[in-house]
Amino acid sequence: MNHYGISAIHWNANLGEIDEVLLHRLARHETEGTFVLKRGEPVWCSDVVRLIRGGDTVWVMLAAGRDSYKNTEHVGINVRRGQQAYLYSCTKDGTPTTTLTDLPRYQKPDDPPPLPTGAGSSADGARRSR
C-alpha cells in the first residue's frame, strides 16, 4: 500500500468541480531509510480514484513551511447517481470537510482568465440593470 498527498487542485469552471490535482508520492529514501515526499505531478482525479480503490491512501496536505507539508485529512471517493466518481476530503470517521476544495488552485494554459474580484457573471449584471 502506497501513500500519496494532494497539495493543490485545478478547478474546472466549466464542470464546476475539481478535475485534476497536484499529487505527491511518499517514498522511502534508499540510503537513509527515511521517507521523502516526491515532487508533485498533475494527475486526473480519475487516476486518484483508481489509486484509492486499489488500496492506496491519499491525504490532503497543507503547507507547513518552505518545502514542508503536513497531512491533514483523508481523501475519499463518492459517486453521484448516474455520474462518475469524484474526490472529497473527510475526517478519520468519514465526515466530509472542505479541506480539499480549500487547497491552493493552479491554472492551466487553456483556462479562461479568472473574473476580477467582485465581478459576477453576465447574468448577474443583467439582473442588476433591470
Walkthrough of the structure:
- This protein has 130 residues and is mainly beta.
- 12% of the residues lie in helices and 42% in strands.
- The protein has helices at residues 45-53, 122-128, and strands at residues 3-12, 17-28, 35-37, 41-44, 57-63, 69-79, 85-90, 96-97.
- Strand 7 (85-90) and strand 8 form a beta hairpin.
User: Low-confidence runs (pLDDT<50, min 5 residues)?
Assistant: 122-130
Head-to-tail CA distance between termini: 59 Å
| Content of β-strand | 35-45%
Task: Provide the number of structural domains.
Answer: 1
Largest sheet: 8 strands, mixed
Number of strands: 8
Summarize, please.
The chain is 12% helix and 42% strand. The chain is mostly beta strands and 130 residues long.
Pick out its properties.
disordered C terminus, globular, 130 residues, mainly beta, eight-stranded mixed β-sheet
How would you summarize the topology of this molecule?
Blueprint: E1 3-12, E2 17-28, E3 35-37, E4 41-44, H1 45-53, E5 57-63, E6 69-79, E7 85-90, E8 96-97, H2 122-128
Parallel strand pairs: 1-5
Antiparallel strand pairs: 1-2, 2-3, 2-4, 5-6, 6-7, 7-8
